[in-house]
Design goal:
77% of the residues lie in helices and 0% in strands. With 182 residues, the protein is mainly alpha-helical.
């Protein structure tokens, strides 16, 4: 059985509903409600735009892939390399105080890298033993390097030779690479 469209409108009551909604009196009553919905729409549109520009989600999702493709290196590796070059440049000064400062900066850089990669813990050692992350391959060497760093910070007369400093900086460099590159 085929029902023509004009009869179907009458059958369902759509035509009556459209006439009812189109009535100027109803439209006048709905005007304040329309204004409220328009205000909500504008508010939420502005909120979406604000979150769009202030969120790192888009950088992470879209810019990371583009950056990796164009630079042919892992996202964030450029910043890591830049920071590490700064630490190496400080260590090349050769004086004991510069070597000590380079080790302290390397330890801080590793700590920040651990935090960025969501290692959990309130201390450096707890972060290295984070249960939700895999254990770093040179775990014992990292702890030893961190103990040297603590000795530098807390013992003013701690003596550091060039070979020991180079070895410690190499341990930190490898640890940062393992943390960042996974």
């Amino acid at each position: 059985m085929f029902i023509p469209w004009d009869q179907l409108y009458d059958y369902i009551g759509i035509r009556d509903f459209i006439y009812f909604i189109s009535n100027p009196d109803i439209q006048a009553m709905l005007f304040p409600i329309k204004l409220v919905f328009i205000a909500f729409t504008i508010f939420f549109f502005c909120a979406v735009i604000w979150f769009y520009f202030n969120s790192t989600y888009l950088k992470y999702k879209f810019l990371q892939d583009t950056t990796e493709f164009l630079s042919k290196e892992t996202y964030g590796l450029g910043a890591m390399t830049k920071n590490w070059k700064k630490i190496k440049k400080r260590a090349q000064g050769g004086t004991e105080s510069e070597l000590k400062l380079a080790i302290i900066e390397a330890d801080d850089f590793l700590y920040e890298s651990l935090q960025d990669m969501d290692y959990q813990g309130s201390t450096f050692e707890e972060m290295l033993n984070s249960p939700n992350k895999k254990r770093l391959p040179d775990f014992e060497e990292i702890l030893e390097a961190h103990q040297v760093r603590n000795a530098i910070v807390y013992e003013p007369n701690y003596e550091l030779d060039l070979q020991q400093a180079k070895r410690i900086l190499l341990v930190y460099e490898n640890a940062v690479k393992n943390v960042v590159l996974g």
